[in-house]
Amino acid sequence: MSALSGIKVLELSESVSGEYCAKLLSDFGAEVIKLEKPGRGSPTRSLGPFASRGTEPERSGLFAYLNTGKSSIALDISSDAGTAALNKLLNYVDVVIDDHPAGWLKSVGLDPVTFQNHRPGLVLCSITAYGQSPPDDRIHAEDLNVFHSSGWGYHTPSGAGDSMPPLKGPGRFLPSYESGLEAAMCVVAALYERESSNRGQFIEISKQEVLASRVDYVLGQMVAGDMDVSTKRGAFDLFGPAGIFRCRDGYAYIWMSAPTHWDALGQLLGHPEWMKSFPDRWLERECTPERVAQVRHHIAEWLKTQDKHQAAADAQKLGLTLVAVNNATDLKASPQYAFRGFFAEVDHPILGMKLYPTAPYKLSATPAKIQSPAPLLGQHTEKLTALIDVNGKEHRS
Amino acid sequence: MIRPMRGGPLQGVRVVELTKVWAGPYTGKLLAFLGAEVIRVESLESLDVTRTYGVADINKAPGFQAVNPQKLSVQIDMKSKGGIALILDLLRKSDVVIENLRPGAVKRLGLGYETIKAAKPDIVFVSMGMHGSEGPLSYQTGYAPCFAALGGLSALVGYEGEPPAGMNVRYADSTYGTAAAYAAVVALMHRRRTGAGQFIDVSAVECMTSMIGDTLMDFALNGTVQTCNGNRHPDMAPHGTYPCREGEWISIAVASDHSWKALAEAMGRPELAQYSHFKTHSDRKAHETQLDRLVSEWTANRDAAELVSELQRRGIAAAKSQSSVDLISDPHLWAREFFLEVRDRDGQSRTIVGPSWKMSRGAAITDAAPRLGEHNAYVLGDILGLSVDEQQKLADAGVTR
Fold first, then answer.
1. Do A255 and B146 touch (CB under 8 A)?
2. Do the chains contact at A167 and B359, CB–CB below 8 Å?
3. With a threshold of 0.90, does the pTM exceed it?
4. Beta strand residue intervals within chain A, DSSP E
5. ipTM, 2 dp
């Protein structure tokens, strides 16, 4: 039995944040029922990466990743029969996850303000870009917009010139993954409380706030008046020679902030003459732009003759925080990921047996586990319809 | 001393932090925001550096205060045997312990999982390490940008055709802290239902990889190794940030032909939507450099905030790229009480960054970060049941202060 065994979740989500949230719950044994529109199914089925085999709507790697462990019921909830089936489903489940824009839940009969009158035990979680009451100029948002309204965008990358456009961050969906994780945490906390109170609740997640809260160390100082705010692109940055450098076989990242790092660099470079002119503890006390430029120049000259993984191993043994800038090939080959079993084989009927990324936490008694491949569209409609006909007739108290 | 009941789903849960800097404290902060009683065990001999950055007074360090609101602090010398015994006594009365000290440090202190489990069999033990607690690379250490580099994020952020530039240097610790908090809450749920605790081993690097899971699916399915590509997005065009007046930037994301048509109209050039170069999504992707140039030329002399309003009225996803000034003056964040007031022991108010969520029965968030050892009397007296004399003896012996 895993930690969430027996918990039933209805997923109304149709984008990455809610689908990821419910996937995280499924990893711990929750029974997740994904409601999809007949025909094309979830919009994430129409987003890549696509496999070369199979046909839509069953060849999206994005959908396959986000929906492991779930059942799919194809249901048109705008029809009368669909509405009746949705009501039965709502009677059957403990949790509902949604990520449609503000106002949508009410339109399908789940008013965040009043649903508890009828379904007091239900945990209802909504993920939106700006919360349930967005102002008029924040109605439409993609992840790019959330990333930029949160402050991360303007300050990414670190050290950018004023004329260079602020960037979107890694991949397509970082704001959604962050928000799905936050939502999963809140949902399980609410379920924990429900074990004794028998009461559900409404949880509202704002993606903008999830991302802005991730920079609390800086933003908290700014909003308290302890750190300068400005229109500077470097307002979140730290100073020093840290950065990404080219190697023979890719890139490495080096971090230097302490005397031990400087000493280790000296050992690696064979104590060259130029280092001797630097005062003790210069990194902490006399970190001038000229010194930083000089150090960066020499690190660049050295690293371009090195291989990233070997340079990292050598540096780490001496206490210098130098690491490889990994790409997908590196991650797949990582001995550490292999040791922890980060990639797991999942056998999907259309996509075949592939290695999927799993979760970053290992729980000794209730490990996160991919229960099954993502469902085909409507794969469980018949079975679930029969099940909720029996079990969804009356409100659970 | 009676602690106020603050509500929240984790009310009644006691968490002990053996943490430093940002990631571990962030885990504790989230649990505190969910209603848990979170106690930082601190030691003057081995202080969290964020208590000392930039200030002479360890009780006024701004970085520390930013990440540690709503927590308690007990000062116990972790280098003394008496101190370790006292911490084990505290753990006997606690539910969760979080540690993010250097690899192997808790074991050397005599506070490894096996030892704590012997004292408190149903403890939820959260261990946080750059690469997790075991494995061929677990000896390595690093700071947040190292996690992002190792986890595959940095390689994906940068301008097209240039070396990767990476996410902002501050990214990673808090995400890592959140994954640890989720795992802790899951373990609490299991414990409530079965009575069993467990060991949780969180890897910072894997937390980063979890933020780009779909790019690894591309590798699994097609062998594609994605690289940095500026602001390009396979499913949207235009998609990017565009310059506005006075050095400001607007982000615009167009996900459909319908939305592109609306943008062309906003630009006063509805005919653009009919050009063969821009008609469909694949047309726009094929001529994206040209498309971006047209949009940039149009935005360049506009006011960013006004332009956002105009595009939103037309149904287009747009937002200002907010600077730090924009963020702390964002009226929506204030209206939602994302920025909220708490008070310290002396009644001084302080603004903090609150949680991202609202709940029907959320915790009241009221307290500023603790002074070092502010709650010694509560922890030693109320929780551990030591008399005033016994507490004095510990203080005289230097075990507490």
1. yes
2. no
3. yes
4. 8-11, 31-36, 70-74, 95-98, 123-128, 201-206, 243-247, 250-255, 321-324, 343-348, 352-357, 361-363
5. 0.98
